[in-house]
Amino acid sequence: MEIRIVENENKGFMPKESELGFGKVFSDHMFVMDYEEGRGWYDARIIPFGYISLHPASTVLHYGAEIFEGLKAYRTAEGSVQLFRPMENIKRMNTSAERMCLPTIDEEEALEILTAFVKHEERWVPHTFGTSLYLRPYMFGNDESLGVHTVKRATFMIIASPSGSYYKEGINPVKIMIENEDVRTVRGGTGYAKCGGNYAASTRAGERANKKGYSQVLWLDGVERRYIEEVGAMNVMFKIDGEIITPALTGSILPGITRKSCIEVLRSLGYKVTERLLSVDELIEALENGRLEEAWGCGTAAVVSPIGRLMYRDVEYSVNGEKIGEVTQRLYDILTGIQWGKLPDSFGWVYKL
Ligand code: PLP
Ligand code: COI
What we know:
Layout: E1 4-5, E2 29-36, E3 40-48, H1 59-63, E4 66-68, E5 71-75, E6 81-84, H2 86-99, H3 107-120, E7 132-141, E8 153-163, E9 174-178, H4 196-211, E10 216-220, E11 228-231, E12 235-240, E13 243-247, H5 257-268, E14 273-276, H6 280-288, E15 292-299, E16 303-312, E17 315-318, H7 326-339, E18 350-352
Parallel strand pairs: 1-3, 9-10, 9-16, 13-14
Antiparallel strand pairs: 2-3, 2-8, 4-7, 5-6, 5-7, 6-18, 7-8, 10-11, 12-13, 12-15, 15-16, 16-17
The structure holds pyridoxal-5'-phosphate and 2-OXO-4-methylpentanoic acid.
Residues 70, 199, 233, 299-301 line the site of 2-OXO-4-methylpentanoic acid.
């Protein structure tokens, strides 16, 4: 596929790697490609990073036709750059597109685009272990009319942000609040799709949690507010009585690529991992009886993040004495080891550029 390139004559500077936060600094270029019904995708281009202009009636502005992905480019100790299971992100993007009536992209072409873009922005992949170039592919509808229907015009873009740790805590345990008022999504809704609207709807609860000193909320199911779903930007796992339990993918939870990878790693190590419905009552009982040994969240941005405190109905519980648990640490070491190329890629997950 042909990708037109317009060089940015005003190149930026990488901030000090120790000061990289998450998603605040952007690389010099962005990828853009347009779609029109009947014509398909056209004008693939890498152009200087900058503002875009939209028709005031654009579908995304009125009806929220938007989906996105998140993955990282990692720098190995030898200096090469690699991605982690990029095809999984591409497949999930097409699943999200289908749910939101946006056009899909040929998987091989999407991988070609991603590769070409990361190669072009290679100097923005930081060198310190734990830092990476966070890649944000996204797509939105931009029909120039107010009718509500499958979009006829869309834009696909990728931006890149050199990033450090997602939480200010780094790999230290985070505090999470179990939300029992707002819900994120319901079965039959858009929970399994990575669409902007899910996050807009989540923000109110997230802000309330932040004000009380918690990093994020843990969502309960949208019908009974009884079953554990996931955290704001990560899936969750609990070690109860030696068994690892993670909420089953019921349709309202994002099928995380880190979640899937953690399950595969844990099973290969001989741990029993069960995907099932887990009620908040069962979790609290396990906490009170000391049977909850570890809790952690997992996601691309957050990697593997231990949960040190859980709050439910104004009662705060400490998990594993607020220390990083053994399994959490082991998972973190293995996943990051594979991602940053310190460990052999025994699962075949790494995509070298
Ligand atoms: N759940 C939500 C709501 C997320 O935003 C994310 C982050 O992408 C995840 C789970 C974890 O998914 P992944 O591991 O694919 O990044
Ligand atoms: C990711 O982990 O890639 C995410 O998309 C989380 C994001 C909502 C900050």
